C-alpha cells in the first residue's frame, strides 16, 4: 500500500473518514494526547524500531511462514494457503501489537499494563509482554469467557497477570472492555491501556494496525516468492479486526486481489443476540470512545451479541474496517457456528493444524470461496491456534465421529 495512505488515515484527530476519533471523558484527553505524541515520536525512532525488530526475530519467532494446504485444496478446490500466525509466540497474532505497546509503555515510564480479553489470546499476549518487560499486568475477562477459555486463564496466571472476572451484563467481551476502561480511569498516569484490537479511541486503532502490519508485509513477500504472483483472494476473520487489518494492509492497493473479512453469523444471523455480524447488520454509532459500525438495539444502545468464538463477540468493529466497507474495497461476509466447527475439524484432520475458533471462521469462508473460484489462490490469515478451544469444542459439539454414530 502506498505510504501516503498510512499518513492520511487516520487524520490527526484519529478519523478514518467519518469513523474513529476519541469520544472520551476530559480526564483522559490529555493522557491520550501524550500517548499519541509519544507514539509518533518514539515508535519512529531508530532505537525503538531496532529493539522491536530484535524482539520479533529472536523472541516472537518472526517471520511466521506461509503454508500451502495440499489436502484442503484437493478437497475444496482452489489453491488454499495459510499465513501461520498460530506459530507466532503465544499462539496468535496478538503478540505483534502487545510487544509494541509494552515497549512504548517502557519508554513512557509506565508501571502497569491493563487490558480486556475475550478468547484470552490478547490477555496471554499482554501477560507475556508484561513478563518480558517486568511490568505489572491486569486482564479483565467476562465470567462466561473465563469458563469457556480456561486454558488461557491459567496461562495468564502462570505468566503473572491478575485476571479480573467481569460479572455484569452478558459477562463477555463488551463488558470486559467496560470494566478495563473503568479500572484504567483510576490511574492513567502509571498505567497504559493496551486495547486488544483496532478499536477504541484514537490512537489505538492506528497503533494496533501499524504494529500488525508486519503480518501483511511478510505475507505479501512470502506469497510472491512462493508463487511468483500475488494471491487472488485474501481472507481473515473480523471481530474488532486486528488480524484482518494486519494482513489486509499490504494488499489494499492491489486491485487484482479480492479481500474478504469474515464476521460471525453465530446461531442465526437474522436475530439480534444470536450473532456478531457488525458490518453486515450494523449501522454507524459510538461505542467505547470511537465511532464505527455497531449492532444496536431499539434504544440505540449496543445490542447483545453472540459467537462460538469468544474473540469475535463484540458489537463494534474497527473504524478502518468501517471505512473500507463504505469504500467497497473489502467484502464483508460471514460464517455461522456450524460451518466454523466443520472447518475447525477439517483443517485439523486434513492438514494437522488445529485452528482457533476465530480463525476457523476464515477457513470456513475460504472453503466456500474455493468451490466458487476453483482456479484461484486464497491466502487465509490463520490468526491463532486452537489449543484454548479444544475442551469447549469437544464438550459442546463432540467429535465428528460422535455425530456419525448418532445417525
What's the short story on this structure?
With 407 residues, the chain is α/β, with parallel strands linked by helices. Helix content is 47%, strand content 17%.
Describe the secondary structure blueprint for this structure.
Blueprint: H1 3-8, E1 15-16, E2 19-20, H2 26-42, H3 46-60, E3 66-68, H4 70-76, E4 79-84, H5 95-108, E5 112-117, H6 121-133, E6 136-142, H7 143-148, H8 150-158, E7 162-166, H9 173-186, E8 191-193, H10 204-227, E9 233-237, H11 242-248, E10 258-266, H12 278-281, E11 283-287, E12 290-294, H13 319-327, E13 331-336, H14 337-351, H15 357-372, E14 377-382, H16 390-397, H17 400-406
Parallel strand pairs: 4-14, 5-6, 5-8, 6-7, 9-10, 9-14, 10-13
Antiparallel strand pairs: 1-2, 3-4, 11-12
Describe the protein in words.
The structure is a single chain. The protein is an alpha/beta fold and 407 residues long. It folds into two domains: 25-58 and 94-205, 3-Layer(aba) Sandwich (Rossmann fold), CATH 3.40.50.1100; 62-91 and 213-406, Rossmann fold (3-Layer(aba) Sandwich), CATH 3.40.50. The chain contains 17 helices and 14 strands. The protein has helices at residues 3-8, 26-42, 46-60, 70-76, 95-108, 121-133, 143-148, 150-158, 173-186, 204-227, 242-248, 278-281, 319-327, 337-351, 357-372, 390-397, 400-406, and strands spanning 15-16, 19-20, 66-68, 79-84, 112-117, 136-142, 162-166, 191-193, 233-237, 258-266, 283-287, 290-294, 331-336, 377-382. The strands form four sheets. Strands 3-4-14-9-10-13 form a six-stranded mixed sheet, sandwiched between helices. Helix 3 (46-60) packs across helix 5, helix 5 (95-108) packs parallel to helix 6 (121-133) and helix 5 packs across helix 10. It is globular, with a radius of gyration of 20 Å.
Amino acid at each position: 500500500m502506498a505510504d501516503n495512505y498510512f499518513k492520511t488515515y487516520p487524520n490527526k484527530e484519529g478519523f478514518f473518514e467519518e469513523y474513529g476519533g476519541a469520544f472520551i471523558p476530559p480526564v483522559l484527553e490529555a493522557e491520550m494526547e501524550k500517548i499519541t505524541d509519544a507514539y509518533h515520536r518514539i515508535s519512529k525512532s531508530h532505537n525503538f524500531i531496532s529493539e522491536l525488530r530484535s524482539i520479533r526475530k529472536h523472541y516472537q519467532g518472526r517471520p511466521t511462514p506461509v503454508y500451502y494446504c495440499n489436502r484442503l485444496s484437493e478437497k475444496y478446490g482452489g489453491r488454499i494457503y495459510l499465513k501461520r500466525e498460530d506459530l507466532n509466540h503465544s499462539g496468535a497474532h496478538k503478540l505483534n501489537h502487545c510487544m509494541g505497546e509494552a515497549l512504548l509503555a517502557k519508554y513512557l515510564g509506565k508501571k502497569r499494563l491493563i487490558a480486556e480479553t475475550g478468547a484470552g489470546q490478547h490477555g496471554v499476549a499482554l501477560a507475556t509482554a508484561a513478563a518480558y518487560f517486568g511490568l505489572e499486568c491486569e486482564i479483565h475477562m467476562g465470567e462466561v469467557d473465563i469458563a469457556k477459555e480456561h486454558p488461557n486463564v491459567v496461562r495468564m496466571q502462570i505468566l503473572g497477570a491478575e485476571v479480573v472476572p467481569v460479572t455484569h451484563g452478558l459477562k463477555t467481551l463488551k463488558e470486559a472492555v467496560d470494566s478495563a476502561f473503568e479500572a484504567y480511569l483510576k490511574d492513567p498516569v502509571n498505567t497504559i491501556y493496551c486495547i486488544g484490537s483496532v478499536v477504541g479511541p484514537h490512537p489505538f486503532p492506528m497503533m494496533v494496525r501499524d504494529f500488525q502490519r508486519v503480518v501483511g508485509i511478510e505475507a505479501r513477500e512470502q506469497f510472491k516468492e512462493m508463487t511468483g504472483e500475488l494471491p487472488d483472494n485474501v481472507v481473515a476473520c473480523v471481530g474488532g479486526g486486528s488480524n484482518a487489518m494486519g494482513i489486509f494492509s499490504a494488499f489494499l492497493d492491489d486491485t487484482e486481489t479480492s479481500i474478504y473479512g469474515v464476521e460471525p453469523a453465530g446461531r442465526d444471523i437474522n436475530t439480534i443476540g444470536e450473532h456478531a455480524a457488525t458490518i453486515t447488520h450494523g449501522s454507524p454509532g459510538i461505542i467505547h470512545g470511537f465511532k464505527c459500525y455497531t449492532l444496536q438495539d431499539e434504544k440505540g444502545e449496543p445490542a447483545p451479541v453472540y459467537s462460538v468464538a469468544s474473540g469475535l463477540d463484540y458489537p463494534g468493529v474497527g473504524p478502518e474496517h468501517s471505512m473500507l466497507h463504505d469504500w467497497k474495497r473489502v467484502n464483508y461476509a460471514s460464517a455461522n457456528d456450524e460451518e466454523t466447527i466443520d472447518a475447525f475439524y477439517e483443517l485439523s484432520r486434513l492438514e494437522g493444524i488445529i485452528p482457533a475458533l476465530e480463525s476457523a471462521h476464515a477457513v470456513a469462508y475460504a472453503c466456500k470461496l474455493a468451490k466458487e473460484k476453483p482456479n484461484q489462490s486464497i491466502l487465509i490469515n490463520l490468526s491463532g491456534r486452537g489449543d484454548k478451544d479444544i475442551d469447549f469444542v469437544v464438550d459442546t459439539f463432540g467429535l465428528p465421529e460422535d455425530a456419525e454414530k448418532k445417525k
